[in-house]
């Protein structure tokens, strides 16, 4: 989503907020990139940090005090935040090295009151910050209305776009069946109701989709699901069409979204399940004030949503075949166009979007395309705009990470290509990344294995050279839903709590995306999506799983050092390219098909190729 371009300067915006805080008797305020659903990506109306500071990333927080302010971002945005946020107005603070609580602890004074919007933060975050401020004799105060909204004069309203039915022919399971499963989950735990706030969970449970958040097909709504399999859906009335009303049926009561808080107050005496990782602090406060018994449970839609049924998997495979044609045509175009000069990152991203649009099936991109040339490729989550746009020049690498939203599936793919002749270093690093990609793609593992136990497979060849990459190796992906979906992931253990991670289950979709990044020079990433599938192994003594690769597009052969591949790795690459040609060629014209055949030709191998 593009950063809002306000008509007043960042300094004036900050001054207006401070004046509003003073009028309310507050000394400070916390401004996150968040919405009432703790979404990863938020609608334009919720881009409060972007409006206030100018920061256009997807994760971050600002803290404002009377004399000081700070922006908090992780390592993905170290460069971007300095380009977009005025350092004379805000301190730059890196997380997790530091935190909002630590910065406030060092800068707040005794007796000061720091405000926060309880509809934008989790309950555990609020309680931890309140405790930290108490240690400084300061106070965390929940505001009734957001002070940023009071000074953001041209704030856009929440989207009023209508909700759409996601047909059972695409979903593979009727919404009534999903509600029945959740009702059984409630009954077995002696619970009356669960509060559902995650937008993708609501979309999945009710088999509906929307367009309220850029790149994620969800609609702004809350829901209460009950042990009798009925539900209450809280959504703006103008978003409900006759078709959606008929689809939801009599067992789903429809209310205005603004009625949600009052409905929580009506749950007195009920035992209510709430997910502390997905429900904001205001929900816990309202339920506790109403006299409800609140039990912490993970959103019951999270795991079944992650384990795709065969209909969802078949649709996702079809979407990837369609998407692969667009990506392959783009790679051909890049090979022909980039060496001529005059192409930049924005132009390349626009051309890739054009190829996807030509399918006639694209609903949206699944995220902002990472179109990164040369040193910009060394920023794993780089986002090109008019100020950072870089020419794609000979002698460099170009990294493009992109995806599409189709009604039958969500795609996410990264390819790295050489513009001109790559250096020996580029080829070595690319081949090491490829070896790690292959090691993960071909892994077999016992049922119950967690992603953190597989992560080393993708890093081992880079580690052998004393290098690594600073992001996870794989994230979950939805079925015409969020491109980043939990609970599954492939990454280094977090905080020594690998045992709390979700085991991988057959039917889950994940990315396989090792990389390498040389600061100021280039970046490399190879990403395909994979499905967890059962493996039949002769003599196996326990149930085994593996991965099926479902992304199809050529991998740059001129960046591969064949001598570094083992015979088995070279065989995998040749088999993968043969599958790419088989999947994509029938949908291509003669010229594109000829290029694809050359791009997918077997690797030329040295007579005695040995693994590095």
Structural commentary:
The protein has 612 residues and is α+β, with helices and mostly antiparallel strands. It folds into three domains: 142 residues, Creatinase/prolidase N-terminal domain (Creatine Amidinohydrolase, Chain A, domain 1); 136 residues, Creatinase/prolidase N-terminal domain (Creatine Amidinohydrolase, Chain A, domain 1, 3-Layer(aba) Sandwich), CATH 3.40.350.10; 261 residues, Creatine Amidinohydrolase (Alpha-Beta Complex), CATH 3.90.230.10. It has 19 helices and 28 strands. The strands form eight sheets. A six-stranded mixed β-sheet has the order 4-3-2-1-5-6, with helices on both faces. Strands 12-11-10-8-13-14 form a six-stranded mixed β-sheet, with helices on both faces. The protein has a four-stranded antiparallel β-sheet with strand order 21-28-27-24. Strand 25 and strand 26 form a beta hairpin. The longest helix has 28 residues. The two termini are 42 Å apart. The N terminus is likely disordered.
């Amino acid at each position: 989503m593009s950063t809002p371009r306000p008509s007043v300067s960042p300094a004036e915006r900050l001054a207006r907020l401070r004046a509003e805080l003073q009028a309310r008797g507050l000394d400070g305020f916390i401004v996150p990139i968040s919405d009432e659903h703790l979404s990863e990506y938020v609608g334009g109306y919720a881009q409060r940090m972007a409006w206030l500071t100018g920061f256009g990333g997807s994760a971050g927080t600002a803290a404002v005090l009377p004399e000081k302010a700070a922006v908090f971002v992780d390592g993905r945005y170290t460069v971007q935040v300095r380009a977009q946020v005025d350092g004379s107005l805000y301190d730059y603070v890196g997380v997790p090295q530091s935190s909002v609580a630590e910065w406030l602890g060092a800068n707040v004074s005794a007796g000061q009151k720091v405000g926060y919007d309880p509809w934008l933060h989790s309950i555990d975050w609020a309680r931890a910050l309140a405790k930290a401020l108490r240690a400084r004799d300061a106070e965390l105060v929940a505001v009734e209305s957001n002070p940023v909204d009071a000074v953001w004069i041209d704030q856009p309203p929440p989207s009023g776009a209508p909700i759409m039915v996601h047909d059972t022919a695409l979903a593979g399971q009727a919404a009534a069946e999903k509600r029945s499963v959740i009702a059984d989950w409630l009954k077995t735990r002696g619970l009356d109701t669960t509060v559902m706030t995650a937008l993708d969970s609501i979309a999945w449970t009710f088999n509906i989709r929307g367009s309220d958040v850029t790149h994620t097909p969800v609609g702004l709504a809350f829901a209460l699901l009950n042990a009798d399999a009925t539900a209450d859906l809280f959504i703006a009335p103008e978003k409900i069409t006759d078709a959606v009303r008929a689809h939801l049926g009599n067992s789903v009561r429809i209310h205005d979204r603004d009625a949600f808080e009052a409905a929580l107050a009506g749950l007195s005496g009920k035992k209510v399940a709430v997910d502390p990782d997905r429900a904001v602090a205001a929900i816990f406060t309202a339920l506790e004030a109403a006299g409800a018994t609140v039990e912490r449970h993970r959103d019951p839609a999270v795991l079944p949503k992650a384990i795709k049924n065969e209909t969802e998997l078949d649709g996702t495979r079809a979407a990837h075949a369609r998407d692969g044609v667009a990506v392959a045509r783009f790679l051909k175009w890049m090979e022909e166009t980039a060496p001529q000069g005059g192409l930049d990152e924005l132009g390349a991203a626009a051309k890739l979007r054009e190829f996807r649009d030509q399918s006639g099936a694209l609903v949206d991109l699944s995220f902002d395309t990472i179109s990164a040339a040369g040193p910009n490729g060394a920023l794993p989550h780089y986002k090109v705009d008019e100020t950072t746009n870089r020419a794609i020049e000979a002698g460099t690498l170009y990294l493009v990470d992109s995806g599409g939203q189709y009604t039958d599936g969500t795609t996410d793919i990264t390819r790295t290509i050489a513009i001109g002749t790559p250096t020996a270093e580029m080829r070595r690093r690319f081949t090491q990344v490829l070896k790690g990609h292959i090691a993960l793609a071909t892994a077999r593992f016992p049922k119950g294995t967690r992603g953190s136990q597989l992560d080393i497979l993708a890093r081992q060849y880079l580690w052998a050279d004393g290098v690594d990459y600073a992001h996870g190796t794989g994230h979950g992906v939805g079925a015409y839903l969020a491109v980043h979906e939990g609970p599954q992931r492939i990454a280094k253990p977090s905080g020594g709590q690998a045992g709390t991670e979700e085991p991988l289950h057959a039917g889950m979709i994940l990315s396989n995306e090792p990389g390498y990044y040389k600061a100021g020079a280039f970046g490399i990433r190879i990403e395909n999506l994979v499905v967890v599938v059962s493996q039949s192994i002769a003599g196996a003594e326990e149930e085994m799983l593996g991965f099926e690769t479902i992304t199809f597009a050529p991998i740059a052969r001129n960046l591969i050092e064949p001598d570094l591949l083992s015979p088995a790795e070279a065989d995998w690459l040749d088999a993968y390219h043969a599958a790419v040609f088989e999947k994509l060629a029938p949908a291509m014209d003669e010229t594109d098909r000829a290029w694809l055949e050359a791009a997918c030709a077997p690797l030329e191998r040295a007579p005695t190729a040995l693994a590095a």
